[in-house]
Amino acid sequence: MMSKGQGAAHIMKFVVFALIIGFVVLLMLFASGSNKPFEEVSKSVEDSLDTEALTAQDAAMFKRNFGLNAADYAGVLYYSSGASMSAEEVLLVKVNRDSQVQEVVDAINERIDSRISDFEGYAPDEVKLLEDARQSVRGTYIFYACSPDADKYLSVFSGSL
């Protein structure tokens, strides 16, 4: 026969176990990626973009600005401002392997730092945009937006997964 203390400890084990399982499930739901194809996710993001301020860029511009080869990834969507005095840009990358995630994140961070250095001292609004840029890694998808509408774009990206 169990004493009251042993019975409470036994019940607490089950409660803690249930909480851990619940936490893992929530973590997987909110931090995992998506099985959706790149075309579907990129279309959702692309449809939300302000195409008067942003224009589609090719693989050469992606390589020039981020130092990465678009052919190494499952998909790349890159938009940036046509104006040389604007820091606005949106990037969506789907990697082939988990090991590529860090190299893309590092390239984005280097880009932000470089652009801050470029604009520092004479374009404080652009520096603020860069400091407030939004990034998200969800599974094999990496999203980056430097724009006044960055929160909206991030929300569309998250909703499309």
Structure write-up:
- By secondary structure, the protein is α+β, with helices and mostly antiparallel strands.
- It is 53% helix and 16% strand.
- The chain is built from 6 helices and 5 strands.
- Strand 2 and strand 3 form a beta hairpin.
- It is elongated, with a radius of gyration of 21 Å.
- The N and C termini lie far apart (52 Å).
- The mean pLDDT is 87.
Reading the helices and strands in chain order gives: HHEHEEHHEEH
Straight-line N-to-C gap: 52 Å
Rg from C-alpha positions? Answer: 21 Å
What form results from the Cα inertia axes? elongated
User: Strand portion, in percent?
Assistant: 15-25%
The beta-strand count equals 5
Largest sheet: 5 strands, antiparallel
**Helix and strand composition category:** alpha+beta
What is the average of the pLDDT values?
A: 87
Ranges where pLDDT stays below 50 over 5 or more residues in a row are: none
- What is the helix tally? 6
Strand order of the largest sheet: 1-2-3-5-4
Helix percent band: 40-55%
Describe the structure concisely:
The chain has 161 residues and is an alpha+beta fold. The chain is built from 6 helices and 5 strands; from the N terminus they run ααβαββααββα.
Characteristic terms for this protein:
single chain; 161 residues; alpha+beta; 5-stranded antiparallel β-sheet; 6 helices; 5 strands; elongated
Secondary structure topology:
Layout: H1 4-31, H2 38-48, E1 55-56, H3 59-66, E2 75-80, E3 89-94, H4 101-119, H5 124-131, E4 134-138, E5 141-146, H6 150-160
Antiparallel strand pairs: 1-2, 2-3, 3-5, 4-5
